[in-house]
Amino acid sequence: MIAIAVSAPKITAQTDEAAFLPKHYESIQAAQLQEKAFPANFTPSALALFERNDGAPMSEADKAATAKIIQGLTDKKIEHVEQIIAVSDQTTSKDGKYALAPIAIDKATQQSDAFGETAKKLRDEGKSLANGTDLKFQLGGAAAQQLDQKEASGSADAIIALSSVVLVALIVGIIFRSVLAGILPVVLSLMVAMPTSNGLIAYATKAFDLESTPILSAILIVVVLGVGTDYFLFLAFRYRERLRAGDTRQEAVANAVGRVGEAIASAAGAVTVAFAVLILSSLGMFKALGPALAIAVVVTALASLTLVPAVLTVIPARGVFWPGKKWMHEPSNARFASLGRTVQKRPALVAVASGGVLLALTAGALGYNGTFDLAGSSMPKDKESMVVQDKLVNGFSAGAADPTHVYLTSTGGGKLDQAVFDGYVAKLGAVPGVAEAAAKPQVSKDGVTADFTVLLKNEPSSNAAIDTLTELREVAHAQAPSGTDAKVGGLTAIYKDINLAMSHDYKLVFPIAGLLILLILGLQLRSVVAPWYLMASVGLGFSATLGSSTLLFQNIKGEHGMMFMLPILIYLFVVAIGTDYNILIIARLREEARAGRNPREAAREAVRHGGPTVAAAGFILAVSFATFMLAGNIFMLEFGFAMAFGIFLAAFVMAMFFTPALTALVGKAAWWPGHGGDATGGHGDAAVPPAGAHSAHGLPESAGRR
Length: 706
What we know:
This protein has 23 helices and 11 strands. By secondary structure, it is α+β, with helices and mostly antiparallel strands. The radius of gyration is 30 Å and the shape is elongated.
């Protein structure tokens, strides 16, 4: 860890949405064309909005004051501000109440805090210059939204991270009634696995020229801490169980690794595959996340299978479980023993009830509506950038902040025939959802390319704007004059292409990941039957999570949609990490079956012994994700709820009831063509009794043998 962390190279993250789309998408081609044909043009990073304090139309004196304020801002020579465009008739609302001044900020700052800090200086200086006039100065646009979003979040990120760490340590400590047991998974995950993962990710990013994204660091903490805690619990519960069965400390650790190690390796393999397959994604955001998270899971699994057992072997058991005094005694009336008996006696009822819950929640997914309004969903409406956005809708059109551009290029090498421009503008302006198409397009110096500015009626990130963009593209392409080619670009075009890229990913990434996880399960279980219904339950868990989130936020809370990447985030965390719990339970089911128990008895013992581990791991991870709901905005509220509720379903519905009940119903056929239900099959360890089995004298078998 030390060697890797010290020697790892430094990497820089990207935040530009366009940078995460492949070059074959039209919005990217349009952006490249704009840079070539109109190098002096820019997309405003900020928008200065002027209006009178009394709300009346602006007078000539007000317009003069506006020009003076803009000149004053320009003379300030604020760092990173490249250009401030003066107010004109085109940037003044038709009712004369609002005037806009587009501002260009160095694009390089978008990847740093300087972007928002520049907006803060512009806002402060603009308000200062407006003092003593009848004008109100407000700043909107991307840079102002970043500033307001940061202020709205405040210390939420730190609170989330600290809350996760404290909750993990506290809950694990309560479960084992131990101070050290609560601290160990946090220390081993964040002080060993985390820096090692970061170092290897940096090496891989540099060696294979991978993308990097700024959201990786926050997600990495949750993944490493969550997975690391899960695997620690898998080992610690089995370790304690073997101590109760009479093993020495060294024997208990060896037995725990021998029995649970394969389940951890398989679970890590499934999660790693699920993450790694994202390298096939069309979106750079997920292409960057996938390999990085896969590396983190591999590192965490290796630490769990080597360092954790070594620590448990070195530290006396009384120290690990101190100050608890009853850790050597299994409760006689354990709740999970009762649950296990319920699954044993009524597997059909349990399977129907748990499966019914998942199916009922799945119905809500049919109403899911993705939205790209990340700014609107991540900060209060009274923030200045949001107020400016609303006033743009009233005074201009919602699309005025980020106009759409149609670039018409001559394909024959000659200059464009400008006589056809008026007819082309009329056709673009007639598209439903278009507020205005500029009458006079800008023509490049060589006369080969023309830029037609189109204002949409709806906010650029809205679904309505994306629908308009779809039709606008069709008209722009179909009505392009002979000998020309049309490309439609702008922020809405980028969102449209992200939408197309995600549809591609759903059809490619999900099936490949599913098949690879199916293969891993088949190899672990030596079966071609059990993996299929395990994957079916995972699929139900995915759709039930999306459905429950849709029901809560769209149907009950009344949101018009949820963040567009929610399905992939559910796939990343609920499906990938939630599969761990299914694997742990199914591994215990196979172990009990191979020891000679019939299918229903195996289900009973799996729930009895594996249930506490799954419940603890699932509860801790769900609570960790729930801390994201403390951020105070709808974006994090949706994310936190979906992840927490999805993990809860994976642990407490799928793994605890659905999987063992189905396995009990399928019977020995679940292990076909292997020998999971034959005491003489498998690895030849049939002579080893099931963990916790007792001899005729009432003593643990291992104690009786000694």
